[in-house]
TrEMBL record, chain A:
This is Electron transfer flavoprotein subunit beta. Its cofactor is AMP. The lineage of its organism: Bacteria, Pseudomonadati, Pseudomonadota, Alphaproteobacteria, Sphingomonadales. It comes from Aurantiacibacter xanthus. PROSITE patterns: ETF_BETA. InterPro entries: ET-Flavoprotein_bsu_CS, ETF_a/b_N, ETF_b, ETF_beta_N, Rossmann-like_a/b/a_fold. One of its GO terms (biological process) is carboxylic acid catabolic process. The keyword Cell inner membrane does not apply. Residues 23-211 form the Electron transfer flavoprotein alpha/beta-subunit N-terminal domain. One of its GO terms (molecular function) is electron transfer activity. Heterodimer of an alpha and a beta subunit. It comes from the Bacteria. The keyword Transport applies.
TrEMBL record, chain B:
Residues 3-181 form the Electron transfer flavoprotein alpha/beta-subunit N-terminal domain. The lineage of its organism: Bacteria, Pseudomonadati, Pseudomonadota, Alphaproteobacteria, Sphingomonadales. GO terms for biological process: fatty acid beta-oxidation using acyl-CoA dehydrogenase. FAD binds at residues 201, 227-228, 241-245, 258-265, 279. SUPFAM superfamilies: Adenine nucleotide alpha hydrolases-like, DHS-like NAD/FAD-binding domain. This is Electron transfer flavoprotein subunit alpha. Belongs to the ETF alpha-subunit/FixB family. Keywords: Electron transport, FAD, Flavoprotein, Transport. GO terms for molecular function: electron transfer activity; flavin adenine dinucleotide binding.
Amino acid sequence: MKALVPVKRVIDYNVKPRVKADGSGVDLANVKMSMNPFDEIAVEEAVRLKEAGQIDEIVVVSIGPAKAQETLRAALAMGADSALLIETEEAIEPLAVAKMLKAVSGEVEPGLIILGKQAIDDDSNQTGQMLAGLMNLPQGTFASKVELEGDHVRVTREVDGGLETVRLSTPAIITTDLRLNEPRYASLPNIMKAKKKPLEIKTPADYGVDIAPRLKTLNVSEPPVRQAGVKVADVDELIARLKAMGVA
Amino acid sequence: MKTLVYVAHDNVHLGDATLATVTAASKLGEVHLLVAGAGCGAVAEAASRIAGIGKVHVADDAACEHQLAENIAPLIAGLMTDHDAVLFPATTTGKNIAPRVAALLDVMQISDILSVEGERTFTRPIYAGNAIATVESSDAKLVITVRGTAFDKAEAEGGAAEIAAVASTDDAGKSSFVSAELAKSERPELTSAKIIVSGGRALKDSATFENIVMPLADKLGAGVGASRAAVDAGYVPNDYQVGQTGKIVAPEVYIAIGISGAIQHLAGMKDSKTIIAINKDEDAPIFQVADIGLVADLYQAVPELTAAL
Ligand SMILES: Cc1cc2nc3c(=O)[nH]c(=O)nc-3n(C[C@H](O)[C@H](O)[C@H](O)COP(=O)(O)OP(=O)(O)OC[C@H]3O[C@@H](n4cnc5c(N)ncnc54)[C@H](O)[C@@H]3O)c2cc1C
Ligand SMILES: Nc1ncnc2c1ncn2[C@@H]1O[C@H](COP(=O)(O)O)[C@@H](O)[C@H]1O
């Protein structure tokens, strides 16, 4: 069984994004970019399934700028076998991403497609579910545990009230939550090896997918800034303030 | 515009998250509700009493019992021939189903809206809430998830809407529910609590978290939250997590104990009315958003505070 893992290049999670003064977006010039943290978890999960002998081959795919090759190389260094970049400088919405992933899946024929639950730039939390809808496949979203059992997969999901377990027929779509695993750091030899692994480059036009955005961003602004308040000297003063607020 | 709101429920109780979603929908037009479940008659009754709504559609069927997206999405896509917009509470259930509906309708979903600016224009947070985007949809139908803390709750009583049965689609046969491990707690639920006490990595282990954070929460009648670090380290279960990827909360009072204030944590709580932080590091970023800060060792300060209340 093959696994397909879509990975997105996004602003590094440690960087505090700055809104552009003209309200056109977030300033990404000279900002550190990395693989979306949830996608690292997705790659790690696929690699562990391969190490356990349950997956034969891992294909990673990214839709994004030429620089996303770095993101794909990082995934190859973690243990993926081959990579595909669908190159575009446009920002692509989840619906169009899902359509391209559907087309890629038609070629790769994966038994599992493992995505991140959300990209930390657009915070959409849509692509996996959309892909599942487009392909009419079952979905195990927000996974904290994935167990392959022959032609089925058991997925434990993080839900508002706690945990929920579902059983899906394969092929299936999984989206990762933070506690699924802790991604490895690629070793130097593996980083060197990754440079020789196949990385194919295509364009959205090769897949005939309409990437015209459906949402128009009219403006991007800073959220209201909270002002720091006061520091109290001790617990007594804190209690006095709580009392004044009617809390205690 | 005719809207459909997906009712949050567990087949027995109507989920609170529904009410804020009704408010958001009412800004677009007429509001209809959908209750999809099994043996969910009481939920439909409760839904019909929400003030200001037009009609409650009920799909009461075994295929809907666990609200599996594979079974619910086609049902909703079918109902969209008669509705212009569908709005889901941004709960894990809503987030699971909504994009699948959007894909079936070939529309781009608008996630986690904070406000309704016009018929097709909304604001939503991006980059962990470090920026707010105003977006306009060009799609024929709208599929939306609603951030509960951003809208007032509709009145739960006062309405007397008609309840109409709708046929569910068949079980898609691709997925099945196995089990759920749901936390049972006497404490207020995080997303509706008036006061929240949250603990971070500094709490060391689950016994310490229990001994330090819980007594304070009990004294205040507060809900209990946690940072991701505390959840990852196993001090408390995952449903306690507050933040970009956990729960979004906005209580009257949020008390952060031994939490540094990473942007991902702030994303989940910075709309709280009053933020109180207890941290031994006076430079901890949490103090930049705290209304009241106490620089102290939590192991002294928190028991002292609890005892004095
Ligand atoms: C993709 C992604 C998503 C994330 N989502 C979330 C999320 O939803 N929610 C979330 O919370 N985090 C999230 N994180 C993690 C986040 O980046 C931080 O790592 C996390 O919030 C830190 O938790 P903390 O404040 O408890 O721990 P730390 O940052 O380690 O802070 C501990 C604090 O305790 C203080 N302290 C220590 N001892 C004492 C003492 N005796 N008395 C008083 N104070 C003391 C220290 O001064 C310090 O400030 C996410 C990260 C990623 C990459
Ligand atoms: N441009 C992209 N290229 C590759 N994968 C993507 C892209 N956009 C989204 N994804 C995948 O979809 C997941 C959810 O993204 P989103 O729906 O945008 O929050 C991500 O974690 C990725 O796994």
